[in-house]
Amino acid sequence: MLYTGIEKVLVQGIGFAQGVVLARLLRPEDFGLAAMLGIFLGVGAALAESGLGMAYVVYGRNSRRVFWWNVGIGAAIYLTLALSAPFIADFYGEPVLKPLLCVMGLGVVLNAASVLGNARLQRERRFGMLSSVNVTTTLVAFLAAVVLALFGWGVWAIAWMGVVGALLRLAALAATKSLKFATDDDGDFRKMLGYGLKLTLSGLIHTAYMNSYNLIVGRMFSPAAVGLFSRGQRWAALPTDVVNDSVGRVALPDMAQGRKGAKAYLLLNALLLWPMLALLWLFADAVVGFVLGSAWIECVPYIRILLVGVMFTPITNISLQYIRAKGRGDLVLVTDAIKKPIQIGLLAAGAFMLSFGWSGQGVLLLCWVKVASDIVEAATDMAVAFRLRYSDAPKWKKEPIDLVYCWCNGKAFESLEKCRFSNNGELYYSIKSVDRFAPWFRTIWIFVNDGTEIPTWLSSHPKVRIAKHSKVIPAKYLPLYNAVSIEFWLWAIPGLSERFVYANDDMFLGRKTSPRQFFARDGRAICRYCNGEMDFGGSYRAELENNRAFMKEHSDGLSDEWQKAIYRAPHHNMDACIKSSMREFCERFPKVLEEAGAAKFRSYEQLQRDVFSLWAMATGKGVFRLRKRILPPRWESLAYGLEDAWGYKILERKRPYMFCLNDTESSTDEHRRIAAEWLKGQ
Questions:
Q1: Are residues 385 and 364 in the same domain?
Q2: CB atoms inside a 10 Å sphere around CB 420
């Protein structure tokens, strides 16, 4: 974002200087002549690109075919433009358009040859290099145009500026080796081409529609009016060129590769763009008069009207990027099929009104038509994106999710560590918090030793099912008193859902939650870890270090995602689990299950259930995440010992999604009484 943002600011700065300098050296008529060719050059550029740049960003395959396809189509487009030039000149009644189109059309071929280089730098996130290329070539091309304008070349300065910029960009991309073909990138080119052509068709429709405003103004008004209107459009688009393009460029590969979601980018896009629009609207007359001169002051009302529609462009930008990132070129066409007839109808209504006496305020009327069109576009794109998001929901979201507790009632065992088996009524309040904040759990499993007495309030709960150790754990390992060992058998509970959440009875929910608090959009388990490094000792520290030593020995060839947690402790709270991943681990390493799953008491040598999270991350079924703040004062997860009296005040103020009141070796009966009273009051 930083590289791209700097690039856009610099390029816009160069463009701003370009507009100032060339506006003083050239006439509005010169800009109007160049604008008249915009629709033809835009269509040609879209056809030559064929959407393969975006397809390469999404799929990353077929570099050789992408390059030669673009070059071949670009050459064919140039030939078509050259042959059509006489007819276009006759249509506008401007003979100079014939040679002008032949020169400006060269940029179509050169830009087509640059498609692969741009796309590769974007996909590989080499935004610094891409930004350097774009800034340098834009600056040199502008300087060339200024020199030509000073020597009286008029509109030809604009024409050659585009050609010089395209030629320099192609040379610079070749120097970065981004045009080099990969040797192992064969793939389904037909799929990429189909995706790209759908985007191309959409781009053609959009380009034709956008340039139709200039066509109508050019047909019904003078070249000067076209110049003023196009300048108004350009100035209204200045903030979007910086913000929307910058955010969109980073958002596409990020969303395509699953790094970020659309919501974050939409918020960022709007927060960056809207203040700029407000400032430009307030000071448009002063800025235009000072920068461009009095000859251009007539475009100020156009700018202010058009800015109203530009407010809605973040929605359009991120919605379309989301649809493209999902590889749904067909849905991009669906948005066009919905919105373009409405937009064309609005434009036709505007043109009809112009032909019946509204010509005095005709350009202003077209500006308001453009605002209405922007609103229609944003609403349509957002609706289709939402439909895609929810209709394309992963299958796992339709599957049940269970909750599992390991529990004893405090009467079953005697232990030197009273905290391991004491019962302060936490389970009652934990389940109450689940009923209140997570009613989507299908079943609440209570995993208990056969000798555990089940109270009536628990056995009568409609979602609770009791899973006894003897029905899950082989008899030769029973009885088990070690919670760490018992946790190695959770996956074997008969009837347990594929995705489930594991909790101790001292863990609670503090806010309304959804499955997305525990599972990523693609269904992977979210494995939360503490922000700081492990700064404690004891058997728990030893168990975690044993887990990491085990993974170092056995994770060869697997994903390195688990290593993000190598110096961190798991957050002490409810955790997401994948049953098949846990089963796979136990079946692959039966010796671990034999030792860790059978130890009757905790020791410094055994593994701990955190190894399941490390394994899930190593095999692509888990995703690492630090415990974090969501929005002040909300936290995802907090944990305190019963002896931490100050912790209750923080919990009341922060209201985290999950919290734990841990009964530790330092906890006394008085601490347990205070905790029970506090829970009762919640």
A1: yes
A2: 16
User: What is the arithmetic mean of pLDDT over 572-582?
Assistant: 94
Same domain, 181 and 269: no
How many percent of the chain have pLDDT more than 90?
27
Residue 672 has pLDDT above 90, yes or no: no
pLDDT at 420 over 50: no
Q: How confident is the model at residue 394 (pLDDT cuts 50, 70, 90)?
A: low
State whether 341 and 415 are in the same domain: no
Q: In which domain, by residue range, is 300 found?
A: 221-392
Are 246 and 369 found together in one domain?
yes
Nearest partner of 434 among 379, 383, 509, 495, judged by Cα: 509
- Work out how many domains the chain is built from and give that number: 3
26, 125: one domain:
yes
Q: Can you give the CATH number for the domain in which 509 is found? A: 3.90.550.10
Listing DSSP states for 525-583 in one string gives EEEEEEEEEP---HHHHHHHHHHHHHHHHH-TTS-SGGGGGTTEEEPSS-EEEEHHHHH
And the tokens for 321?
């990027």
181-216 pLDDT per residue, tens: 765 566 678 888 888 888 878 877 776 777 666 666
pLDDT score recorded for residue 400: 94
- The two tokens of residue 625 are 């995440």
Map 395-446 to HEC letters: HHHHCCEEEEEECCCCCCCCCCCHHHHCCCCHHHHHHHHHHHHCCCCCCEEE
